[in-house]
Automatic annotation (TrEMBL):
The lineage of its organism: Bacteria, Bacillati, Actinomycetota, Actinomycetes, Pseudonocardiales. It comes from Actinophytocola xanthii. CDD domains: ABC_DR_subfamily_A. The keyword Nucleotide-binding applies. Belongs to the ABC transporter superfamily. Keywords: ATP-binding, Nucleotide-binding, Transport. Signal peptide: none annotated. Pfam families: ABC_tran. Residues 4-230 form the ABC transporter domain. This is ABC transporter. InterPro entries: AAA+_ATPase, ABC_transporter-like_ATP-bd, P-loop_NTPase. GO terms for molecular function: ATP binding; ATP hydrolysis activity.
Length: 303
């Protein structure tokens, strides 16, 4: 039962603040670290892994500081985002080397167990260069797991995987979490985090924007203000009707194109069809405006 804890932790690079005053605890089970690119996810994981020192605040693993504490390396495994695996080695050789680096008493037995956990035994004697992306990723997980750590940190483990490989990796993470490990993985895709149905920590521009059950995060995102482009038989008249609605914060009519900013998505969605019908206006299209992930996430910071 090893918890990872950040207390008022910040990390800056020169004048770039990558992580800004973050306090969070990650306990046993599966937790997703969600945020757009550049939000600071990698920096958080590297702080937790003891690869970076916090510029301010503290980062602990099992109550002990992560930085400058070699004991920590014995209790955690890190699967980095960049995929630097030597293709000329077999999975067996790669994982065995990791076991030897950890100076384990029986490296071969540890390598066998780790390769078994990730279900790579049947391909373990082939060169890594012949593997699929998913197999390479599982090999890297095995190398990070070889010393049986209580904490496993994975940076964007699903990147570039096809749906089948993704599913396989999700099952693997679930299984490891059920065994009582503390598993934290980063992602910029809400659906990915949702499917794993763990706790979610959302980080935006270096700050912790939201945290909790994924349903809570989903609700926050759904209830955020939405922008729609609406097509109807009489856009001008519909605009005048909509502007009187409390759930609508702005209406623009540009060259006949009607855009509506709904401050309360649920109320607006329920009212729109009724209002149009009552005014004798036929709705022909409702299109959500293209909103960047960054915009959706930054809404969370403001709530
Ligand atoms: N070594 C570094 N020197 C200077 N700036 C850095 C360094 N590493 C990261 N940064 C900056 O810190 C911020 C956070 O980066 P980080 O890699 O932690 O984000 P991320 O959420 O993991 O993004 P991505 O998913 O794109 O890797 C970014 O603005 C990034 O440019």
């Amino acid at each position: 039962m090893t918890a990872v804890e950040l207390t008022e932790a910040s990390r800056w690079y020169g004048n770039v603040v990558a992580v800004n005053d973050v306090t969070l605890t990650v306990g046993p089970g599966l937790t997703g670290l969600l945020g757009p690119n550049g939000a600071g996810k990698t920096t958080v994981l590297h702080l937790m892994a003891g690869l970076l020192s916090p510029s301010q605040g503290t980062v602990t693993i099992g109550g002990k500081p992560a930085w400058r504490n070699p004991d920590v390396y014995r209790t955690l495994g890190l699967v980095t985002e960049r995929e630097s695996v030597p293709g000329f080695l077999t999975a067996w050789e790669f994982v065995l080397a990791s076991a030897k680096l950890h100076k384990l008493p029986d490296p071969a037995a540890a390598a066998r167990t780790a390769l078994g956990i990730v279900e790579m035994e049947s391909a373990q004697d082939r060169a890594i260069s012949t593997y699929s992306k998913g197999m390479r990723q599982r090999t890297r997980v095995a190398a990070a797991l070889v010393h049986d750590p209580g904490v496993l940190l994975l940076d964007e483990p699903f990147n570039g995987m096809d749906p089948r490989q993704r599913l396989h990796m999700m099952e693997l993470l679930h299984r490891m979490a059920e065994e009582g490990r503390t598993i934290l993985f980063s992602s910029h895709i809400l659906e990915e985090v949702e499917q794993l149905s763990g706790t979610v920590q959302v980080i935006v521009a270096g700050r912790l924007a939201a945290s909790g059950d994924y349903r809570h995060i989903r609700r926050l995102m759904t209830n955020r203000p939405h922008v729609f482009t609406i097509e109807s038989s009489d856009n001008r008249r519909l605009a005048t009707v909509l502007i009187g609605q409390e759930s609508v914060s702005a209406v623009t009519l540009t060259d006949g194109t009607l855009q509506v900013h709904a401050s309360d998505y649920g109320t607006f969605a329920r009212a729109l069809a009724k209002l149009a019908k009552a005014s004798g206006i036929r709705l022909t299209g409702i299109l959500p405006a293209d909103e960047s992930l960054e915009k959706v996430f930054s809404y969370l910071v403001a709530t």
